[in-house]
Amino acid sequence: MNEVIQNILNRRSIRIYSEEQIKQEDLDLILQAGMFAPSACNFQSWHFTVIQNKEIIKILNDKSKNELKKSDNENFKKFSDDEQFNIFYNASTIIVVSGDKKSIAPEIDCAAATENIMLAAESIGIGTCWIGLITPLFKSEQSEEILKLLQIPENYEPYYAITLGYKKGENPKPQPRRDNVINYIR
Ligand SMILES: Cc1cc2nc3c(=O)[nH]c(=O)nc-3n(C[C@H](O)[C@H](O)[C@H](O)COP(=O)(O)O)c2cc1C
């Protein structure tokens, strides 16, 4: 099997990280991979906010957990009640992914870029996890304050975050794949 396919199959969501900060040259490569994703009409509508400031990450974690408390989803509520739970798994780097609201399909462009980022990171031994648990905060009444705090450019909307860090240990085993998801018309 070639290395690209192997990398896609090996990537897993990583939720335990070492404290060591990832190297800038690794981060540059990973972000470049994100910027080379496909995008509708080549709008390249993504914006990446790289956060390595522990205080800001803590504010985002605390505020997100407060928002999750208000959720109708029982699992989300459980996360917010668990004091030890950190929505970013204590990763030393997080990337908030935002899309240009004036473009054609910003959320889809951003999802393509996010997968590129996660695969690029995996290929150089850096673990990642897609963090949708921050989305309720971005959609809350605090959103204006968060836009300012994160210096999100005007007309961009933050969607979610990605955690990045060196892995502690091996990748977890993959969950079984659902079948009956392929249909041929020939
Ligand atoms: C849109 C989206 C949101 C996600 N949000 C979270 C999250 O907030 N926290 C988390 O631990 N994992 C999150 N995940 C990761 C999924 O749980 C994970 O991809 C899935 O269980 C499959 O595992 P794998 O990535 O190891 O293959 C998210 C994934 C996606 C695509």
Chart the SSEs and their pairings.
Blueprint: H1 3-10, H2 24-35, E1 46-51, H3 54-69, H4 74-81, E2 93-100, H5 106-123, E3 126-131, H6 135-138, H7 143-149, E4 156-166
Antiparallel strand pairs: 1-2, 2-4, 3-4
Helix pairs in contact: 2-5, 3-4
The structure holds flavin mononucleotide (FMN).
How large is the radius of gyration?
A: 17 Å
Write down how many β-strands occur, each being a DSSP E stretch of 2 or more residues.
4
CATH class wording: Alpha Beta
Strand order of the largest sheet: 1-2-4-3
For the biggest sheet, the summary is: 4 strands, antiparallel
The tally of helices reads 7
C-alpha termini separation: 27 Å
Would you give an account of this structure?
There is one protein chain. The protein has 186 residues and is α+β, with helices and mostly antiparallel strands. Helices cover 39% and strands 17% of the residues. The protein has seven helices and four strands. Helix 2 runs antiparallel to helix 5. The longest helix has 18 residues, at 106-123. 30% of the residues are buried. The structure holds flavin mononucleotide.
